[in-house]
Amino acid sequence: MAQNLGNALIYALLGTLIFVFVFVIIDKLTPYHLWREVVDGKNVALAILVGSVALGICIIIAAAVH
Question: How many separate domains does the chain show?
């Protein structure tokens, strides 16, 4: 049981690190700063798009790690 918990923590950390890395790359590839545009510019359409991209990345990472 302890080994399963350890493996789950390792995979969760690995998945989180990969997600952050990919999201930073996506943020650098866009011509504007995503967070500033969503929060300061109140761009709801961009927020929905970024959320969808984040979910897509998470699904891919979860499938690869699983």
Answer: 1
